[in-house]
Amino acid sequence: MNTREDEGLTQLGQGKATRYPAEYDPAILEAFTNKHQGNDYMVSLHCQEFTSLCPITGQPDFAKIRVSYIPAVKMVESKSLKLYLFSFRNHGDFHEDCINKIGKDLVALMEPKYLEVAGEFTPRGGISIWPVYTYSKGEEYQEYARQRLFALALKTN
User: Fold this and answer.
1) Which residue of the set 54, 97, 98, 105 is catalytic?
2) Which pTM does this prediction carry?
3) Which of 1, 64, 65, 150 has its CB surrounded by the most CB atoms within 10 Å?
4) Of 6, 25, 40, 61, which residue is the catalytic one?
């Protein structure tokens, strides 16, 4: 890899066994420079196998997580995102808390123009929970963030 492109990336392509975190750890997240900062474009990343623990019962919760964002200067490196999401495996938090933590940690890492994190948690006790987090930097994307928040929260399929 070009040294300019892999500067600061420690998880990707290191030729060693991947170490999976045992505890929630936002420090795992890594970013690289967006080569197309003059363009507005959407990046979507999907995690089909997210797990966390109920903070009360300790039972596992399962979800699909979708992260979509319009990058500014930095972009999240996908393997670091995978390891970060895996770090929730033994972490006890409510569904809504997990989604808000993910959103806030990604905003802190990248400072994107726009970001949404949507979780589709599988039913437990007959009820599924689909929390949504949106963020917009500046006024340009605020109305879009509001519309997406409601559209995603009201999604029924």
Assistant:
1) 54
2) 0.86
3) 65
4) 61
Distance CA 70, CA 10 (A): 24
Q: What's 81's DSSP letter? A: H
With a cut of 90, say whether residue 95 has pLDDT above it: yes
pLDDT at 87: 95
pLDDT for the residue 152 = 76
| DSSP codes joined into one string, 88-152 | TTT-B--HHHHHHHHHHHHHHHH--SEEEEEEEEEEETTEEE--EEEEESSSTTHHHHHHHHHHH
Structure tokens at 9: 């990336």
Query: Is 98 marked active-site?
Result: no
- Of 149 and 112, more confident: 112
